[in-house]
Specification:
The chain is an alpha/beta fold. It is built from 13 helices and 12 strands. The two termini are 27 Å apart.
């Protein structure tokens, strides 16, 4: 299990369905793929998806600050390597590029460990859940009011019991309320509806609009204010009778500490790019201590391993961003995921996907 080589690849792949967050749509999927190879030939794989560019920057960070630190180490030292990289790069990192770089390494290391033992990660960590519910995400605001509903109805037709739409940025509060009202009218009373604001509002706006949203049985209101505005989160949570959730933009459990100290958010949404598997398992454990549940941000094909192994998993976010990349994709059935029994995280890139879309 001695690490003998680490390789990274920059992919630019076309979208299966472009995510229409607003007037501007990302032209391609920017993907960083990382391979960690051991002296026995085991190859662990990790990857990131970046919506605003930055893959070459993270590759430079890997080359200078990360890869030299892990070559020659035992790949099973997942905790030791995580701590070493965290402390070594703390002065210039703590968040951002350095954490994303060590996160993709962490995912690859765990994949290698699982492959070495012949076990899927959810078994290695201690299996807990056979079935994990998912919600259909991607009812983007850029599709327009009717387009968001159309996409949601497709999810419901495929067996999903929950969907997520967007609010804010493109629309004013009047249109946002109309959009939710239309969604509730079309989907009926038995489908859970979430909405993501993507940090677009002030606390006052969130409270005013959120009170109207409550009339339509909104399941959760996601990232209503900028991620640094913890007091704003807590003001909103105290004022509204709807779940306030967030966490996808926060790096590691340290950045989330105010959420644990002021338990106003019942559900946290950590992102595997901002800590890796090692850190997300710790976030889940701390959250469980305080009665909070986990609904990870994106990466359902990776996150199913985490959610199958923790007691406080809530729901997975499903989008089809990477379904075409895998030899054997991990997909939901009737809105439900089950973790695969393949070693490691169970994902293998199609060779032609890597070859066709690699740019660096």
């Amino acid at each position: 299990m001695i690490i003998k080589d680490v390789r990274s690849y920059h992919l630019k792949a076309p979208w299966v369905e472009p995510p229409k967050f607003g007037p501007v749509v990302p032209e391609t999927r920017e993907i960083l793929v990382l391979e960690v190879e051991t002296n026995s030939g085991i190859v662990g794989v990790g990857y990131l998806i970046l919506l605003g560019g930055g893959v070459p920057t993270i590759q430079a960070c890997l080359k200078e600050l990360v890869i030299p630190e892990i070559l020659g180490r035992d790949a099973s030292e997942t905790e030791g390597i995580w701590q070493h990289l965290w402390k070594k790069n703390y002065w210039i990192g703590r968040m951002g590029v350095t954490v994303m770089a060590q996160s993709v390494v962490d995912v690859a290391l765990w994949d290698a460990v699982g492959k070495n033992t012949g076990m899927p990660l959810h078994r290695l960590w201690g299996h807990c859940n056979d079935f994990i519910p998912a919600y259909g995400s991607g009812c983007w605001r850029g599709y327009g009011p009717e387009g968001m509903v159309d996409r949601a109805e497709r999810y419901v037709e495929n067996g999903f019991k929950a969907i997520k739409m967007q609010s804010g940025i493109v629309y004013d509060r009047h249109q946002d309320i109309q959009n939710l009202a239309r969604m509730r009218d079309k989907l009926g009373p038995h489908i859970d509806i979430m909405t993501d604001v993507n940090m677009a509002w002030t606390p006052d706006e969130a409270i005013i609009i959120g009170r109207k949203f409550q009339e339509y049985d909104l399941y959760w209101l996601e990232e209503p204010v900028p991620c640094e505005d913890f007091s704003g989160y807590f003001r909103i949570a105290e004022a509204l009778d709807v779940r306030i959730v967030g966490g996808e933009t926060h790096f590691t459990r340290f950045d989330m500490r105010p959420f644990f100290e002021n338990r106003k958010l019942p559900i946290l949404q950590p992102d595997v790019m901002r800590g890796g598997y090692t850190e997300l398992r710790k976030i889940a454990s701390v959250a469980d201590t305080w009665g909070m549940t986990i609904a990870p941000h994106l990466f359902p094909e990776l996150m199913v391993q985490l959610m199958a192994s923790i007691p406080n998993g809530h729901i997975l976010e499903y989008v089809n961003w990477m379904d075409d990349a895998w030899v054997d994709p991990i997909l939901p059935r009737d809105g439900i995921f089950s973790a695969p029994e393949r070693p490691g995280h169970g994902l293998e890139f199609k060779s032609e996907f890597l070859t066709e879309y690699q740019v660096g």
